[in-house]
Amino acid sequence: MLKAYAKTAIIVIILAASALYGVSSIFALKNAADGKVYWCKDFRSQADAQKAFDSGEEKYERLDGDKDGIACQSHVYLNKNTLKTIQVK
User: Fold this and answer.
1) Which residues contact 2 (CB under 8 A, 6 or more apart)?
2) Which residues of the chain have pLDDT under 50?
3) How far apart are CA 72 and CA 77, in angstroms?
4) Where are the domains of the chain?
5) What does the alpha-carbon distance between residue 47 and residue 36 come to, in Å, rounded to a whole number?
6) Which of 13, 16, 48, 56 has the most CB atoms at less than 10 Å from its CB?
7) Is 22 left (phi over 0), alpha (psi -120 to 50) or beta?
8) Orientation angle between helical segments 2-21 and 23-31, nearest 10 degrees
9) Three-class SS of residue 69?
10) What angle do CA 72, 21, 38 make, to 5 degrees?
11) Distance of CA 55 to the CA centre of its chain
C-alpha cells in the first residue's frame, strides 16, 4: 500500500514541477552531468556558444533549439557594435 502512495506522490511532484518550470526544463536538469544547464544567455557570444555546443556534451544540447547544428542563432548578444547600431541619435 505504501508503494502505491509513494508512486502517486512522485507523479504529483513531477506534475507540479513541470507546471512551475516547464517539462523541458526538468528533463534538461536531469540530463546535465554537473547539474548545470547552459542557455544562450550564459555565453558572451554566439561563437562561444557554438564552441560549447560542438563539444557534444549533453549539458549544451539546449543551445540548438531547432536542431540544425547552429547554437543560439536567434539570441541577441549585446556588445559595443550592437549598442552603436541601436542607439537613437
Assistant:
1) none
2) 21, 23-32, 86-89
3) 10
4) 1-31, 33-89
5) 20
6) 48
7) left
8) 110
9) coil
10) 30
11) 16
What is the Cβ-side half-sphere exposure of residue 48, based on CA atoms within 13 angstroms?
10
Q: Alpha helices, DSSP H only, in 1-89?
A: 2-21, 23-31, 46-54, 80-86
Residues present in the chain in total:
89
pTM over 0.90: no
Task: Compute the distance between CA of residue 24 and CA of residue 18 in angstroms, rounded to an integer.
Answer: 8
In one letter, which amino acid is 47? A
**HSE-CB for 78 with a 13 A CA cutoff:** 5
**What pLDDT score does 85 carry?**
52
